[in-house]
Amino acid sequence: MTLIFKILGIALLHLVFFACYPGTGVYGNYYLAGSLLVWTIFILFINTSTKLLNLVSGTIGLVINLAAFSLMALAIAATMPQSDKTSVLEKIQSGKYPDRDTVNSGMLRFGVNLNRETKAGVKGLEKELGKAVQKLKED
To answer: Could you tell me how far CA 118 lies from the centroid of its own chain?
Structure first.
């Protein structure tokens, strides 16, 4: 993986956690910025060693990258602040997974309204379905 894809992977992993568990309280944005910075620097250091190990064996570099991202996901889940004082890791372990409303409220933090986009898609589908039914009636 190239470095830019790794950095995009870091951002995507943070986006997923923050969208699925949006109740981060007042320090959530600070945590997001700090965590992105810390993990980007960590991946920069890991990237150098994986480039050297890729010369020996490509699978060793891949294993190290997967281990780094697994460690990152575990650390984010264990340390991400939540307003109910229950860590994301504890929520996952107890089976409290996010539902559609939770993900929608989490995506609103990033400016994406899933309900509006779904409604627009349903309206477009209904319009196309109406055209198809009208065409069938004509035949």
So the answer is: 19
Please give the average per-residue pLDDT across 36-64, as a whole number. Answer: 84
CB 107 within 8 A of CB 19: yes
H-state helical runs in the chain: 3-20, 28-56, 58-79, 88-93, 100-108, 114-138
Alpha-carbon distance 2 to 15, whole Å?
A: 20
Residue 126's identity, in one-letter code, is: E
21: which DSSP letter? S
Answer whether residue 60 shows pLDDT above 90.
no
As a whole-number percent, the residues of the chain with pLDDT over 70 amount to: 94
- The string over 1-15, giving b where at least 16 C-beta atoms fall within 10 Å of a residue's C-beta and e elsewhere, is eeeeebbebbeebbb
The answer to whether the beta carbons of residues 83 and 25 sit under 8 Å apart is yes
Q: What was the pLDDT predicted at 124?
A: 72
Does the pLDDT at position 1 exceed 70? no
Q: 35 near 53, Cβ under 8 Å?
A: no
Calpha distance 135→122 (Å, rounded): 20
